[in-house]
Amino acid sequence: MRLFRKKRTVDDELREEIEFHLRMRTGLNEREGMTAGAAREAARRQFGNATRIQEEARRMQINEFLETLMQDLCYAARSFRRTPGFTFAAVFAIALGIGATTAMFSVVDRILFRGLPYAHEDRLVWLGMGAPIGRNEFLLGPDYLEWRDAQTPFEAFTSSHGENDCDITENEPVRARCGRVEWTFLPTLGIHPALGRNFTREEDSPNAPRVGLLSYGLWQSRFGGNPTAIGKALRVDGDPITVVGVLPRDFEMPSLARVDLLLPQALDEAAQRKREIMAMVMVFARLKPGVALAQAEAALQPLFERALQFVPPQFRKEVKLKVSALRDRQVRDARLASWILLGSVVCVLLISCANVANLLLARAASRQRENAVRAAIGAPRARLIRQMLTESLLLSVMGAFAGLLLAHGLLRALVAIAPEGIPRLAQAGLDLRVLLFGFAGSALCGILFGLAPALQRPRVEALTGWRVAGGRPKRLRHLLVTGQLAVSLVLLTAAGLLLQSLWKLQNVRLGMSPESVMTVALSLNPHRYPQPPQQRAFLEALEARLAGLPGTASVAFADSVPPGGRSMVTIYSRIAVEGRPDTRSAGTGGMVVGRKVTPGYFSVLRIPILRGRAFREEDRLSGTGTIILSESLARRMFPNENPLGKRIRPGVDGQWGEVIGIAGDVKNAGLIGKDDPEYYEPMIFTAARGRRRANVIIRSAIQFLELTDEIQSLHGVQIIARLLSPAKQVRALQKLLALGAAAGPR
Questions:
Q1: What is the mean pLDDT of the chain?
Q2: φ, ψ for residue 186 (rounded to 5)?
Q3: How far is the C-alpha of 90 from the C-alpha of 106, rounded, in Å?
């Protein structure tokens, strides 16, 4: 504590010294016969301008400090050059700690700490009804209008119909993402267009002329950032829209979905209030100042109770009111994972600091005689401490530069291999904020591991040439090693558990064989293929062409693909069994996944048919209802019966179908989610019912990229391809993205 005792500042010392000289001169004047006042005035005149003298003395002090600092830096650099092994080990340890910590901070900073690109983002909420049929909260159109008109805790209320694929169909056609929002959407979020204006209430009506706002990226790529884009017409899905504004560069949807165009939602309020047509919307609101989430939820409870009256009684207990802060709603489970990852890399940084501290302690032990000689010839204790800290800070700066280079490489690798679902991962980078964090962390580490050798007081015994061992430095080294072992044991245990979990995920039984299987998600251009006959002709031609590709073993179509795809979800109690009473009043019974597939689906994915048979071409062509049940659904619906030949109807408006087979269970809720039972219906391409979207599943022995080139060459189709085999996804998709998009309408 003596080393860090509060000292007088340089200005205080200078003022005291000047006052001392004035008192001495005043005393001499008084002894010569002057009065006290006259002696004081004469002393001031003789001494000169005290303020200027104080400034010159301070300047001399600063110059001396800079001179000694440069001496310390030059000495430290020469010392490190003489001991390259020590220097490399210390810089490497610091670089590892700073690199890992900085890279992880750049990821979690945007999740945990950085503000959202909205005005007063702490007052924004996402609200609605949560139900098992969807992951996001929602409101039906009539309920939304009633809540918007009657709510009291919010100063602004708005909605969005979500995002969907759309096509810009002029000049150079491209596939884009269009978001449909209410005219109050941007004002509620506190966003102003970077150029132009927002659309108006009149433009957000069903029969109004179509207008839109461009994303900043689309404005740059499509119009070269030219302000004259405002007012121009752009054909979207074959229809012209007028560009009225450009969104800010940092604009993001509250759902974090990517959008290229914002279009009016055009909700028909009159029809919604009559409950003739009920749209499903996501709802966002801004709290009034001083209103807490709990107060807002309590104020909405009566409106929620009224909305429940329109929900079937058996479903009401599974519908909940949810009001969440927008940031919490965006990050979801990523918050806890982010804190754990950040804490882990901070522990790695502390271990690195302890390593360097041990290295500096060992180095200080070999320099005891040197420091003792310096102290003996008059070096102040503070001067020795400053020299030690200068050396440690120089080490930390060198380690910081190396660590930031390492962080850049780690970030690129992380973005390339990370799974989907990490919020704002694509935005992670080494911006000024992250760089300041890296250098601040390195400076803090430099002080921490530099204090250990700096606190050692030079001993007189060292002047004799004896080696001085034991004492506090030795105990400190033992303490540092013990701390390193404890933290390392915790990290190794956590890493082992994580690797075990990853191993289990990698070896989860999918119920199918994904090796050598590629899936292609395609969406036909509605401008080029507007009618069902055209859509049917294209899909039939595509199916025939893919089946004829060399090395292709089998091809199938499906509306969704496991293990994560679930395009159709229904409630178990809505599946009717012929001859049995209606069970809808007994509750929902959970969710059931429905999938429409072509006959080759089970053979392509090698899903076993346990009983009965798979679909045949005549099942598609005849149009007579046939259904295949998963093993779990068959066991639940027909526990003590043979399900083959039974007739069921999935949903109130579904078609009755005969159960012709029982398929093995397949993962359909991701690798870690709880799977739901499943049923399959034949996918039919008819002139009456076209299909703009489908997933193609191909089992092929030829190379992934060669097959992609074949499909990409097809006219009028946009594809997103992936390998079902997790071990091959990253490498293949990176190469696929490098190919670029095919020219022509997509």
A1: 80
A2: -65, -45
A3: 24
DSSP string, 632-682: HHHHHH-TTS--TT-EEEESTTPPPEEEEEEEPP---STTTSPP--EEEEE
CA 229 to the chain's CA centroid: 32
Q: What does the pLDDT read at residue 743?
A: 28
Output b/e per residue, 425-443; b: 16+ Cβ within 10 A: beebebeeebeebbbebbe
Task: For 565-591, write each residue's pLDDT tens digit.
Answer: 777 888 888 888 888 887 665 667 788
What letter does residue 568 receive in the DSSP assignment? Answer: E
Preceding peptide of 563 cis, ω within 30°: yes
* Residue 139 Cα distances to 299, 303, 322, angstroms: 16, 12, 11
User: Which one, of 184, 185, 245, lies nearest residue 218 by Cα?
Assistant: 245
CA angle at 310 for the pair 307 and 312, rounded to the nearest 5°? 125
Q: What is the largest CA-CA distance in the chain?
A: 131
Distance, in Å, from the CA atom of 32 to the CA atom of 154, rounded to the nearest integer, reads 84
Render pLDDT for 213-251 as a digit per residue (tens, 0 to 9): 999 999 998 888 999 999 999 988 878 999 999 999 989
| Token pair for 270 | 């009159």
Burial (CB < 10 A; 0-12, 13-18, 19+), residue 237, is middle
Residues 740, 734: Cα–Cα separation, whole Å: 11
- 10 Å CB burial of residue 409 (0-12, 13-18, 19+) is exposed
**Looking at the predicted structure, is the pLDDT value of residue 278 above 90?**
no
The CA distance from 21 to 43, in Å, is 9
Give the three-state DSSP class for 2: helix
Cβ-based neighbours of 489, under 8 Å, separated by 6 or more: none
